[in-house]
Batch of 4 targets.
Target 1
Amino acid sequence: MVGPLGHETYVLEFLLTTFSPVHEVIFVAIVCMGQFMTQTNIGVCLSPLDIVGDSFYIEAPGILSWFMAGYSLTVGTFILAGLSVYSNYILFIFARVFQGIGGALLMPNALALLGATYQPGKKKNMIFAIFGAAAPNSALLGSVFGAIFSQLAWWPWTYRAQAIVALCCAALGLLVIPSIHHDTPFDKSFLGLLKALDALGGACGIGGLVLVNIAWNQAPTVGWSEPYVYVLLIIGILSIAAFFYVEFRVAAHPLIPFHAFSRDVSFVLGCVACGWGSFGIWIYCFWRFEEKIRQVTPLLTSAQFVPVGPMGIIACVVTGWLMGRMRPGLIMVLSMSAFTLGNVFIAIAPVHQTYWALTFVCLLVIPWGMDMSFPAATLMLSNAVERKHQGVAASLVTTIVNYSISLSLGLAGTVEVHVNNGGHTPDDVLKGYRGALYLAVGLGGLGMFLSAIYVFKGYRAERQPAKARHEEA
């Protein structure tokens, strides 16, 4: 795939001018498939979660949540998940982890291609909005086909079908995505390669994030009384601290060029972490609430989930239009508000209430959180950094989104097991879900607070030069 460094970005722009309209449409569609395939892998696991769990004789919520958290941890090898039925749930979780590696490779490169190819402007705004709109629609299609295969046929075919789609997209991508090679000089010895890749920083960063995530997601299953849980957490935190030390003081070619980012980037990433962490809890608890508490079949729940698709498209178009007329910070405030309200609606929804009341309204609100925050954040970071750092900016947003989803599931699981009285009755299980959803409301509210501060800082920064000019006059 293309790496957005050096003069390659200008070559991309030149090639874009030679594209026919049909070629450009296919190019954008294939790049957006990176988002599509990544988010589909969330939907295909949600709808048939109990069916897959039953095939492995698993009922423990802590283990079932790993079916989702393991994927978001690494966001591949699509076929492994389909073959894991012949083994056990441990292989299935590892297969989901490997699927996440595919998403981790797809998303940053897809965003970097779009960021490096299109100049800032209305067209770029709309392209990024379309890319964001792929998320709710792919999650919807993933849940629908996951339910169809799992409820009416055999669940492994869900993942085998994904493998076929991925191979077709790969073949089409070879035809429509320009082939560009780097000429960035570096020492091609083994040590030189390690320095160029910042292997030490990568090991510390990835190791720390993985260990912290495992600790938080494993704690609800085995309890914090297990020594290895908090040992993993401590080692993970120390590894993350070592990562920052390496990036600032040691690495010749740091993975994340912190010098290229302003303080505002921290606010943007903080908002993204809160909003998508809130979303991760919502999407898991929503499906659990419908299937376990309301006893709705996976296929019918997928049908109820349909409003997310068209509403996501509407949110995509509106967001693309707003990004040329409104501050991205204000768009972020609106998106955080949507995440928060969506969680409030499902958290307070009565069990026996009609679907067309709070549940339906919730599904109309949540897509605005996804389709406003992701394009706004990626566009803000894309425009804030140099062309050569487009891939890094895209990687940061993708990492924060998926890691927040995975980590928030661990946090929600901890809250759930501490408030559900063991989960022996339906009322206790419901109490646990509501506790997790209230945590999601808190995360969304924190995102609203951070985004409001970001907007206030922007207004204040604009008023300062005007005031200085007035005083000078």
Target 2
Amino acid sequence: MQPVHIIGAGLAGSEAAWQVARAGVPAILHEMRPNTATFAHKTGDCAEMVCSNSFRSDDDVTNAVGQLHWEMRAAGGLIMAMADRHRLPAGGALAVDREEFARAVTQALRADPLIEIRTEEVSELPQDGNWIVATGPLTSDLLATSIRNLTGTDALAFFDAIAPIVHADTIDMSVAWEQSRYDKGATEAERRAYINCPMDKPQYEAFIDALLAAEKTQFREGETAGYFDGCLPIEVMAERGRETLRHGPMKPVGLTNAHRPQDKPYAVVQLRRDNALGTLYNIVGFQTKMKYGAQSQVFRMIPGLEQASFARLGGIHRNSFLNSPTLLDDRMRLRHRPNLRFAGQVTGVEGYVESAAMGLLAGRMAAAQARGRDLGPPPVTTATGALVNHITGGAEARTFQPMNVNFGLFPPLDQMRGGRKGRKDRYPAYTQRAKDGFKAWLDAQ
């Protein structure tokens, strides 16, 4: 049996290789790291998480991301299995110890007799064979050139920013306190999963002034800053209005200052655990393109972080993706070169979970092809099906931008109340319909 080749061992590529092998088909996973490094990755491990350690909400009843988690678990996904094994307290979110998570994914792939990992850079798209391109936002220059030459159009691009990480023992807990927003979580650890740093109005105003005045990374000639709204640098959000951050990552709602419960904070900066030991915390939503020196100065203005030591400062990188609605069919194949499938962030989905889900789907489709069968996508009523439908034709090609999974991609429910007041009944109805549809899709294979 001819193998399936996968380029890129990120979350999408790792999940694709796992799904191919689960179907009894040999998989060859090509990964250029660590021989050829990227500025953002630190190891040669598969599925290394760069921007954050969170897979976001794990609520599969009222949240589209949680429903996507459910579907990946139902399909025997490696990424969800390893995330569950190495999860950290994070309120209602699924966060992981990123180093242990990536190490576990790598070990599972290397231990599988049907998976071969080749440490090599693929610099040109192959002419024949059964291939999945899952190179993500940091596609090498040579392969990116090959993709542009083949598609006949420039890939779109935005800039993805990385949040800083703080050593936990340098956070002043006489100022900060532990609490998840609205005390969400089934256990005490979940309800105390975040560290919160409060600001009064003068502190907030001074912080915004410093943020706006700080020296920023300059773009190269010819580059434009077409950011994805879900991953905006904090200073770009501040430029949109002085109150923007108070209604975004610094919103104070659902939190009570444990030290001064009578005082309502004007704004709150949250930090989320980044490793199992609890020694590292990332500043939630604080992706940035400030220069390193400026970051240290500005972030130490946050109450509780005056003496903070940073394990990693923020950064910024170019993130390229295809105009998939014009290029890919609903089997995720390049329309004029159907031996090539694309998966992950390069297809125009945004987020770790969404990228891995597209890898899962591409892997199953490629394995079916290797066995002489055709596998269509899940129903559009499912989270996975809604995503792949969006990127392969559901989106407007002229204005196509990266998209997280959300209920806006799902077909409407008949006779269900719309608007904010209807969500209580509508969202569980969406997820129940999705579960039924996804189970039926799996049972038919």
Target 3
Amino acid sequence: MSDVVPPEVRPKPAVPAKPPNVAPSPSNSFPPQGPGIGGGGSGISAPPPSGIPVPIGSHGPGHGGSHSVGHGVGHGVGHGGGPAAAHSGGHGHGGSHSSSGGSTLLGYIGIDTIIEQMRKKTMKTGFDFNIMVVGHSGLGKSTLVNTLFKSQVSRKSTGWARDEKIPKTIEIKSVSHVIEEGGVKMKLTVVDTPGFGDQINNDNCWEPISKFINEQYEKFLKEEVNITRKKRIPDTRVHCCLYFISPTGHSLRQLDIEFMKRLSHSVNIIPVIAKADTLTVEERQEFKQRVRKELEMSGIEFYPQKEFDEDMEDKSDNDKIRVSGSPLSYAMPFAVVGSDKEYQVNGKRVLGRKTAWGIVEVENPNHCEFAQLRDFLIRSHLQDLKEVTHNIHYETYRAKRLNENGGLHPIPSSDTQESNL
């Protein structure tokens, strides 16, 4: 029987002693960290003082894993022996989402659909625009409005044919017409005035027009102060007044100055020179500059007023219209020609006026400034005209009326629903 040595008494193999204070190779236990993590400077974290290797992915020095992109490395090293200290330091300063501290938009919310929601709402309700034309008889007021909107919107009556002569206006009359373009509906109301200044005695001839403008403010105000008012108050207020200046080529009449001076604080006045084809190009530019100078000397501020500009962009755009500028600039007052008849010019059908020496094309910028007036009135400033009417002119009238009555008083009875104004 052979001698068997039990396992517990077998001699253990000799293990070579590990040199003291020797750190393991960085290539084995400390793979390089990403550059710039934790503010360490070199991008490679140093081992802990104890020299004990830490497996990859554990919460060791540098702490640059999935917990922190902030200060974890710099504070995780050197605060106490071993991985526990490094782990504590990393969690104390690391963040889980953002190193900047601000919230980050992680997905699509849909805020940009607000514009589309507003568009759908306004498309359902539609738009209102009320324009008044004032000037001598025979200056083409009604024809110009028809040309602006390319529709028979002025002095519409039953049985009136297109080729018939437009009758002379004998009273202030509002004519409404619904225009639709591209799915957008607009209720356009044209306020035609009597032959302004046609009488021999023209004293206070602006009073009927001023009275009509204020009556529309009064109607809107009474609807506002009712206890059970309508969800959408009918807007009959005059948003724009086109004042037609006779193409004399000399200067403004005193009646023109008095009218614009008295009504410029209650309505948006846009002066236009009518029938500009009766003037040469040189006469037209000289007349425009003379009119602007007389308006400035008389203290008349026509639309757009400088104090109503909301920002520098509006000021820059409106200054191009207000300032005199060079003779080639299209500044106010616009020299226009209106016509609702079409002619054949170079193989195209165009709106124009036929003369002995040719056809004046209404929409040709080289012939007149009708295109500039239409762009200004409809394409760029229509909404602003409505806002200025409501926020400036109507609010001025409203404050005056309420001050006269000692403030806004409640309506005595809901049965009558009448305003005390």
Target 4
Amino acid sequence: MVSALGQAIYRFPLKCSWDAARHLSSTQHLQAQSVAIKKSSAVTQAKNVVLVEGVRTPFLLSGTDYVDLMSHDLARVAMQGLLTQTSLPKEIVDYIIYGTVVQEVKTSNIAREAALGAGFPDRIPAHTVTMACISSNQAVTTAAGLIVTGQCDTVVAGGVEFMSDIPIRLSRQMRQMLLSLNKAKSMNGALSLLRKVRPYYLALDFPAIAEFSTSELMGHSADRLAAAFQVSRLEQEEFALRSHTLAKKAQEDGLLTDVIPFKMPGGRIVTKDNCIRPSPLEQMGKIKPAFIWPHGTVTAGTSSVLTDGASAVLIMSEEKALAFGFKPKVYLRDFVYVSQDPKDQLLLGPTYGTSKVLEISGLTIADIDVFEFHEAFAAQVLANMKALDSDWFVQTYLGKQSKVGAPPLEKVNKWGGSLSLGHPFGATGSRLLTMAAHRLQKEGGQFALVAACAAGGLGHAIILEAYPQ
């Protein structure tokens, strides 16, 4: 059974009400330029929110070049890269928000530690958010909310993940014993506690990439979706190969301009993602199922890999951006957060989110020029596209009369996606937004739709509108 859909809806630009319902608005600036647009309605007086620039460190396979660093090192370099790319005066930043998933206990508020390391004034508040794979999406939209409500004009947002050094704990019994030992008031008391130690106390507690509520790995859900929507193993492998091939071409053609050089300790400079590895279908076909043996169809070759990386974006009010001479890339428009059954529909957030964000914006699939969908698994992306194109699914679970429609594949992830570029959990969302903005500029489109799934049955979708060139 599918649980009731939970959703949070936000609109930009806004007046005062967060749940005001109206069509996607063009801006006074856009109308003044007499730019032809597909759909519009009356302009509000609220601040327009723009994405000025976005950067990221190279996304690297965990356990490779970044292995001896810490998460705040990656976040700091991303923030410094944003400053360099924009020549942004640090003192005009009002707030800093970062997303992360697996937190380093020494730097629990990674946003604050990275900001101080990057040289931002200590008067600038910073906080960290976590929402699984859409953590940096939440950082960006929280930044937009601060701007719309008039509290800020300039916010640095982004995310970081560092899977090369995850926190591994002692067993709970050992932790409790050590805490008690620390309180022991005598040697005899300490020895008495130590005599209670059992061999199984020494077992280590590793973080699990599994759903707490269901104890299932996300790959199990991907396999279940593949079966439910009849996504074959060959389809998954073809999609994964497409992702790697497109990413390699984008890298070679110099399209991944958001990637900034990372100077390693010792002076060596890392300049490229290292997760991009196109493999022939014949080779992919030999890989064993990763989650359900022997009949599963999801493999390591069709799954995103554990990745280290950080990203950062500059979010501003349009007025402030223009006052400082910046040329924004896109407007942030309507966005939604959704949630559904974390077992059978764990990875269907893009379907629910896409349907809802198109509904509140007054747009259709045909109006969208650029799609950036997070690729946790090839099966997940393909299942969502089939769900969007299914009258039965939309009528049964979304309460609509007819299907939303699947995005044309030629508009989806044209420069690669998480399967090929890598997926540092907390950093992927702002990477998606920046890539969508760059594609809109390169392709001359007007609207982009970014959508992603996340652990817990969560999802996010947002509409971007190209800034007039």
